[in-house]
Design goal:
Blueprint (H helix, E strand, L loop, with lengths): L1 E3 L6 H6 L11 E8 L3 H5 L2 E5 L2 E9 L2 E8 L17 E2 L3 E4 L3 E2 L4 E2 L2 E3 L5 E2 L7 H20 L5 H29 L7
Parallel strand pairs: 1-10
Antiparallel strand pairs: 2-5, 2-6, 2-7, 3-4, 4-5, 8-11, 9-10
Helix pairs in contact: 3-4
Length: 188
């Protein structure tokens, strides 16, 4: 049994030609860190959204702050830093494509894709780490059932895909409503 936990690189999916079509408009996120003092963020993180995107800022440890900016209105500005972090020592921002994707197949007899290799949502889904852990646990449970002769491999693969796809659809409904409430176009 093979488990693909390679994240967005989707090693196994690409090797086998399993499609992972976009299920949202293209979503680009930039993120970075800043060191110094920002009393505004010491007390609480913030998520601020507009029709052009959203920005999340938070203290991640004393003297270190993190920000993520999702852009819906063109190419991200490589030098942008949140206003509240202006004057702090900022790292060079990095970026990621966080377009929503669900693999057309997340398992077959002999293999499973878990975490972002199976399904990707942007950070506002707020449970990417939990999804990675739980999908790995579910794949492990089903693999054990197949290897112990308690479940046919095809049925286990089908049950896993049904479970992942259901979770994905539930999150898409919630996230689409969030983006529509912000006035962002293109979300079903």
């Amino acid at each position: 049994m093979l488990v693909d936990a390679t994240g967005r690189s989707r090693w196994l999916g690409r090797l086998l030609g399993v499609d992972s079509p976009a299920r949202s408009p293209r979503l680009l996120a930039r993120y970075g860190y800043a060191e110094g003092t920002c009393p505004t963020r010491d007390a609480a993180p913030a998520l601020v959204g507009t029709a052009s995107g959203w920005t999340w800022t938070a203290r991640v440890r004393p003297g270190t702050y993190q920000w993520t900016r999702l852009y819906l209105d063109g190419t991200p500005d490589g030098g942008w830093v949140p206003e509240e972090f202006q004057g702090l020592t900022a790292t060079t921002p990095r970026g990621a494509d966080v377009t929503w994707r669900l693999a057309t197949e997340t398992a077959r007899p002999g293999w499973f894709m878990v975490g972002d290799a199976a399904a990707t949502l942007d950070p506002t889904s707020s449970h990417g780490v939990l999804k990675a852990l739980l999908s790995g646990m579910m794949a492990g449970h089903l693999i054990a059932a197949v290897l112990d002769g308690k479940a046919p491999a095809q049925e286990a693969a089908h049950a896993y895909h049904h479970w992942i796809a259901g979770w994905f659809r539930t999150d898409v409904v919630r996230l689409s409503a969030f983006y529509r409430d912000l006035g962002m176009a293109g979300f079903a």
